[in-house]
Amino acid sequence: MPMTVVEKVLARATGRSSVKVGDVVEPRVDLAMSHENAALVINQFLEIYKGTNKPPKVWDHDKVAIIFDHRVPAESPKTATNHKKIREFVASHMIHKFHDIRGDMGGICHQVLPENGYVRPGYVVVGTDSHTTSHGALGAFSFGIGATEMASVWALGIVLNVEVPATIRVNVFGRFPEFVGPKDFILHLIGKLGAEGANFKVIEFGGEAIWNMPTSGRLTLCNMSVEAGATSGIVPGDDETIRYLRHDAGVVGDIELVLPDADARYERILNIDVSDLDPQIACPHTVDNVKPIDKINHVKVNQVVIGSCTNGRLDDLESAAKIMKGKKVAKHVRMLVFPASGKIYRQALAKGYIGDFMNAGAVVMNPGCGPCLGVHEGALGDNEVALSTTNRNFKGRMGNPTGEVYLCSPAVAAASAITGVITDPRS
Amino acid sequence: MSTVVIKLDDDISTDVIYPGRYMATVLPTETPQFAFADMTEFNAKLKGKQVPPDSVIVAGKNFGCGSSREQAVSTLKGYELTIVARSFARIFLQNSVNLGLRLIEVSDIEASEGDDLEIVGKELVNKTTGRRFKIVPLPQSRQAIIDAGGLVAYTRKRVAESSAV
Ligand code: SF4
Asked: In this structure, which residue's CA is closest to atom 2 in ligand 1?
């Protein structure tokens, strides 16, 4: 029976010759990721073992990854104590895929996993974070779950009751125009599908524009697939996947690609040409409230944010730095830049991008989630407006329910930081 | 059965249900105080015990979209609320099943604050307006977890049954 990538991954992970949409399966897990919310996972994990007369033990300590990113370094004694409890658990369970608050190995979970080669094509990856969809960029079936579900995964090594999702195939053609890229495309797609257009479904990306896209851009697409409600985004592995894993992530040993069958059945197929795509903006307060930039009328911004698991990679910083170089951030604007990982930070430093941002007047922050979820740093004042390369603009997202968040690409963010209003980088 | 305490729009995100800045609070016993923390009036009503258990929140499409934070479920479970919505986001739905928060999906629900709702067979009846709505059943596969009383109990059973130590 012909299968999509996700169907193939789930068939392999359940030892079946095939699965079809709607089947309920219990796939084995190849990688189980948590961040600070491991504090709750640990609590639920210990609960599970109560009264069983068995010692609580994670099913496979090689397959558990924990990354501190949401509040690093800790902003409060409470967070610091959560960090401390997690460190103790990690040590006693010998979890070595652990990324503490350290300049040489830290970063946002959705960057740390790929750049360390933890994710491979064909893997089943779960994470206690909705943007775990990101890792589909490497051909894995990767999706977000809650903390109690993760506790269950730690105990059993499988995810319970997964319904094989239907797949929406998105073929992307053409070449991106100058100053337009993956972020503009995914915003455009979310606007088209709507915030729940892919709820309980997978978005499988293909077509020449995807094959020509580096893994960093594919991570942006899969990262934001959840904003259309998707269980996951996925790009079937190809030469670029192998290049990334070998060259950037230092993977040695076999890499096996899992590809969709040519006659796989899709719920829907979309064909989109990006040759004439304009820069896109998601307006407050939903991610599907997307408009091309020329429909945005003189929006003054107080804070510009570049970074996050969506757009904090080296090519994102490069596209922004090129625009910022030799320019100044507008007087009334605060510009915050936070690279997605320590590794990217150092690469950006070596390439001079960090210097370009600082010379322009930006504040460069440590890798981590920072202003993205508004709990730690970079909160908005009452009724302030932010323009951000992050992935969510929900009410209260940047720490203030009266604030407004617009989402955009790094190029738009950089051009707008200079003028102080939302600005088309092509002008 | 129960009265609608508040009516909400489409796309109510977990950032609204449980703002990110309270995410360091994780224990289900401690999360209820921050339910809808930025909707100060409603939060005060909940905390002031002016909302009886089994009260209903009525919402539009895509309730619980966004972050996977489980606090958004435990915070509502703490008040034993029932959520009736036109649809639910996937992770929120799964988390609710796992923690035993009652969700009822009704794709064309119409109800206002103060209305009394009752389940009659496979329908939800708005007793105030007299209108009846079809309930969309939860995916079958979730039933075992619901029957076990939540995921902790269900997995505990599986762990106890497994021969591996
Ligand atoms: S950067 Fe933002 S979206 Fe990404 S993992 Fe952190 S909080 Fe979540």
From this structure: A372
Give yes or no for residue A233 having a pLDDT over 60. Answer: yes
CA B93 to chain centre: 8
Full domain range(s) for residue A89:
5-259
Q: What is the CA radius of gyration of chain A?
A: 21
Name which of A37, A51, A399 is nearest B26 (Cβ-Cβ). A37
* Number of structural domains chain A divides into: 2
Which has the closest alpha carbon to A223: A311, A99, A113? A311
pLDDT in tens, A332-341: 999 999 999 9
Where is average pLDDT lowest: A204-218, A239-253, B13-27? B13-27
A273 φ, ψ (degrees, to nearest 5) = -100, 130
A61 in any annotated domain? yes
Model confidence band, residue B82 (pLDDT cutoffs 50, 70, 90): very high
Choose, out of B12, B14, B39, B67, the residue to mutate when testing the contact with A (most A CBs < 10 Å): B67
Whether A120 is in a domain gets the answer yes
Judge if A151 and A196 occupy the same domain: yes
In a domain, A387, yes or no: yes
Average pLDDT of every residue of chain A: 97
Residue A284 and residue A236 share a domain: no
The predicted complex's ipTM stands at 0.95
Whether residue A96 is preceded by a cis peptide bond, meaning omega within 30 degrees of 0, is no
Q: Are residues A306 and A182 in the same domain?
A: no
Choose from A152, A227, A286 for mutation: most chain B CBs within 10 A: A152
Establish if A246 belongs to a structural domain.
Answer: yes
Q: Does A129 sit within 8 Å of B20, measured CB to CB? A: no
Q: Average the pLDDT over A256-285 and give the result.
A: 97
Among residues A259, A291, A308, which one ends one of the domains?
A: A259
Do A115 and A12 belong together in one domain? yes
CB contact under 8 A, B159 and A200: no
Q: Are A258 and A241 in contact (CB under 8 A)?
A: no
Mean pLDDT, residues A106-115 taken together:
98
Q: Which domains does chain B have, with CATH numbers?
A: 2-138 (3.20.19.10)
A110/A368 Cα distance (integer angstroms): 10
Provide the token pair at A158.
């499988």
Same domain (yes/no): A46, A157: yes
Query: Are residues A223 and A325 both part of a single domain?
Result: no
The shortest CB-CB distance from A156 to any of B68, B95, B155 is to B155
Residues 6+ apart with CB under 8 A from B65: A195, A196, A229, B11, B12, B13, B14, B89, B92
pLDDT tens figures, A152-205: 999 999 999 899 999 999 999 999 999 999 999 999 999 999 999 999 999 999
Distance between first and last Cα of chain A: 51
Same domain, A47 and A125: yes
Assigned token pair, B159: 């762990």
pLDDT score recorded for residue B163 = 65
The helix (run of H) or strand (run of E) holding residue B102 is: strand B102-105
CATH number (domain holding residue A408): 3.30.499.10
Do A284 and A155 have their domain in common? no
Query: Does residue A37's CB lie within 6 angstroms of at least one atom of ligand 1?
Result: no
Taking the C-alpha atoms of residue A219 and residue A221, their distance in angstroms, rounded to an integer, is: 5
